[in-house]
Amino acid sequence: MAHRITGLTFLFIAAMLYCGRYITAALLSDNPSTHEWFAQTLKDIIGGGYTTWNVLALLVGIGYLIYAEMANHEQKATKESAQDTTQDTESL
């Protein structure tokens, strides 16, 4: 369960990093007296797409979720095999 929470936290961080740039630009350019060149400069600074930190947080989050699912599947398989072994020894 802890790995899932960690993975979701990293995904949340990636989303906040992605949205934060655009929210900041919107707050800065919300002034009615903003000139068009200022708005264009903000767009140039912000750029498009993802940053390195966005991609890193996204990949770590996805990795943690995959690891949590694999560990959960392995744990269930171990429990099932232990139950099968117990049932086999009881029938003898």
What does this structure look like?
By secondary structure, the chain is mainly alpha-helical. It has one domain (about 1-90). The chain has helices at about 1-30, 35-45, 50-90. Helix 1 runs antiparallel to helix 3. The longest helix has about 40 residues, at about 50-90.
List key phrases describing it.
mainly alpha; 3 helices; 0% strand
Integer-rounded radius of gyration: 24 Å
Binned, the helix content reads over 70%
Low-confidence stretches: none
Helix/sheet category: mainly alpha
For the terminal residues, how far apart are their CA atoms? 38 Å
Globular, elongated, flat, extended or rod-shaped: what is the shape? Answer: rod-shaped
Helix/strand order, N-terminal first: HHH
Count of helical regions: 3
Strand content: under 5%
The pLDDT mean sits at: 81
- How would you sum up the major sheet? none
Write down the domain tally. Answer: 1
Q: How many extended strands?
A: 0
Transmembrane segments: 45-67
Keywords: Membrane, Transmembrane, Transmembrane helix
